[in-house]
Each structure stands twice: as structure tokens, then as C-alpha cells.
Amino acid sequence: MQLPRDAVLLRIFIGEDDRFDGRPLHEAIVLKAREMHLGGATVLRGAVGFGHSSRLHTSKILRLSEDLPIVIEIVDAPDRIDAFLPVLDGMMGGGLITKEKVQVLQYGPGPTER
User: Fold this and answer.
1) Prediction pTM value
2) Interval 30-88: pLDDT, tens
3) Neighbours of 88 (CB within 10 A)
4) Nearest to 77 by CA among 98, 108, 104
5) Theoretical Cys-Cys bridge with 49: which of 14, 69, 77, 102, CB 3.0 to 4.6 Å?
């Protein structure tokens, strides 16, 4: 698969405790993106953050299960990201979704070892 140079970065902000169909929402989103053959997805777990409620979520040792922030990033062609948005809307009850134009400089495996 090849990505166009002018692509879109979809960034999804949710909580670690969010779920969809009995599984973690971030996992369900990544699996759906893979099923739809999007360019790739990465899940990042935040150490601290807050959202709409302004409630602070942190990974401090005394608060181990505090619904830490999760960010999912997906890059692909604009039309493929736009086709994914209604699917994503059906999976999410809350959170934040952003979309921005990016330039893909490299995609795929690195050079082979010699």
C-alpha cells in the first residue's frame, strides 16, 4: 500500500476506560482501521491529561487506575479518512477527534541491512 504525499492525520482523544462491544475502545478503533485497510494506526498512552470535564487523569503511583488519556493517530488519504469518520462516530460516545493535513515523507520499511 502506498500513501499519498498529501495526506490527513486523524487524531482521536479518548479515555483508557472507554469501551466498545466489550473491548477497549482504542483497540476496537485500531482493529476497525485495519479492517478498512487504512495506512496505519498508533495508540499513545498519556501520563496525565484532562478533557471536557476538566477532571485531571494521572498515572501517579497512588492513582494507578485513573482512566488515563489515550491518543490514537491514523494517517491516510483524505477520502479514506473521511470514509472512516462515520464508522468512528458510531463507535464513540465521547472524546475529541481532530483532523489535519500532513505531508507523508516516508512510508514503509526502511532500507535492508547489508
Assistant:
1) 0.84
2) 999 999 999 999 999 987 777 666 666 665 555 555 678 999 999 999 999 999 999 99
3) 18
4) 104
5) 69
- Which residue type, as a one-letter code, is found at position 102? V
Contacts of 64 (CB under 8 A, 6+ apart): none
The Cα–Cα gap between 112 and 114 comes to: 6
Q: CA angle, corner 34, sides to 36 and 73, nearest 5?
A: 105
Determine the straight-line distance between the first and last CA of the chain, rounded to whole angstroms. 25
Q: Which residues contact 14 (CB under 8 A, 6 or more apart)?
A: 25, 26, 69, 70, 72, 92, 94, 95
Distance CA 103, CA 82 (A): 17
Residue 18 contacts residue 25 (beta carbons within 8 Å): yes
pLDDT at 35: 97
Domains annotated on the chain, with CATH: 6-99 (3.30.70.120)
**Cβ-contact 33, 87 below 8 angstroms:** no
